[in-house]
Amino acid sequence: MKKQPEITVHMSEDVLRQLLCLCEAEHRSVNNQILLLVRNSIQYFERSKGRFTKEQLAAVDITPYEVKEETDAKTE
Asked: Which residue range is the domain that position 46 belongs to?
């Protein structure tokens, strides 16, 4: 199974505590809560500014975010 891209987010302790409280109140994991927030933000942007075209999306380089497959190389 191909691994999904990963992103690291830096935030203050206060924001992290607020996020964790929000997740608990909404009964979501941190990952699912952040995905919901990102999707809502994209929907808002597209409603106000227009949808992204397939060409725009295809032109975005996601290689820095791809997870490298680990190899089971044995040292001899």
From this structure: 13-65
Query: Does residue 49 sit within a domain?
Result: yes
Please indicate, yes or no, if residue 37 is contained in any of the structural domains.
Answer: yes
Q: Tens of pLDDT along 42-59? A: 999 999 999 999 999 999
**C-alpha pair distances (Å), 14 with each of 1, 21, 45:** 36, 11, 27
Q: What pLDDT does residue 68 have?
A: 81
- Give the CA distances from residue 28 to residues 33, 40, 48, in Å, rounded to whole numbers and listed in that order: 6, 15, 28
Q: Which residues contact 9 (CB under 8 A, 6 or more apart)?
A: 34
What does the alpha-carbon distance between residue 38 and residue 73 come to, in Å, rounded to a whole number?
37
Helices 30-49, 13-26: crossing angle, 10 deg rounding:
90
Specify the pLDDT at position 1: 67
H helices present in the chain, as ranges: 13-26, 30-49, 54-58
